[in-house]
Give the backbone structure.
Amino acid sequence: MRQSIEAVELPRTITPEQAFAALRDRPHVFWLDGGPNARDGWSWVGTGEPDDPDAVGAVVLATAGSSAKTGPLHGGWVGWTGYEPGAAAAGAPVTHADPLPAQRWLRVQEVVAFDHATGRAWAGGADAAGLAARVRAASPRPFVRAVPPHRIAAARIGPDDYADRIRRCRAAIRAGDAYLLCLTTRFEIDGPVDPDRVHAALRASSPSHHGLLIRSGTHALVGASPERFLEVDDGIVRTRPIKGTRPRGTDPDSDRMLRDELQASAKERAENVMIVDLMRNDLAPVCEIGGVSVERLLEVESYASVHQLVSTVAGRLRRDVTVADLLRQAFPAGSMTGAPKLSAMTLLHGLEDGPRGLFSGAAGWVGDDGRLDLAMTIRSVAVHPGGAYVGAGGGITWHSVVEEEVDEVALKAAAPLAAAGALLPPGWDARRVP
């Protein structure tokens, strides 16, 4: 275990925006965001240096909690892992040609931590006092302004083609090759994209408890994920799969109707329960016998643009389990593959016409002490020197209605594209998007 970060408390008037303004010129910077109006949880803004992903995988998962001032993250890594490494490790065929690194982990050098429950903040690092002085001197004014959409994204496939692939998914399900398939596609933006501006826009339009900006050199991942993939704390691993989506209504009555419709949908409930069962099986090999349970089942959570159906699966970890062991069992997440997992990934490889890249991977932090918090990289924008891309998809079951599934993809892609200054392409833009 490496030495924990030393911490200096900051005035309560300091904001995450101010901390990022002090650090945003660094070549490798991150902002793990609990949300602009968070009342609990943590946010971290900091810098790091690229490190070997194998060092992250070798960390032994925590069997006890921590009381460090800077919260759960007090020495460790912030970064991402894309879909393809996990799918390949599970034995599925993959396409590796993607413009961003499949894995990028920054060894944390300095961090500003915000405890939203208490309103307190700390600067941490080898020179915590110097970092605190830089943050206090930074301008508290907004550091970027969002850019209105001014480009049209390019679709990997059109909505009619996507609808045909949904039908092919249903045919595979009817044949018994799978019982749930998470079919995805991609939308590309050509030309320069400023990840800081994307983050500011997405944070304003689609705030989430797992917002993030990880910028490393000329590559960046920006997201507002509503789905916590894996959390390890005090010897417990939790996963919170999301399956089931409805748009927000235009008024309180329609919003309540859509929420109730999602809660009652037999198709959405069945889809969610399938993934709960899959995640129970995924966690069992790294947990104590009889130690896996379902803590929450089929609860609706509401966000700026969507209602989501969410469950929580938890397990008591065996001793000496590493990050690599956990990811080997649980990644890619079943909510982004379908089930049975290997069969689903193999079928999807033949249907999706290209890599997923960072979309449907995982991103967040891993601590030296074996704690971690990783979100699914959904509602995200992956930025590279030539532009950016947004992935979107949905779970297909035998009871899927083709038109509704196509609408769901457009709904999920619209906000990240808009944050990156782009609109849905022709055909997709006519879908049911509020």
Observations:
- The chain has a mean pLDDT of 92.
- The domain at 7-430 is CATH 3.60.120.10 (Anthranilate synthase).
- The CA atoms of residues 200 and 338 lie 32 Å apart.
- DSSP finds eleven helices and 22 strands in the chain.
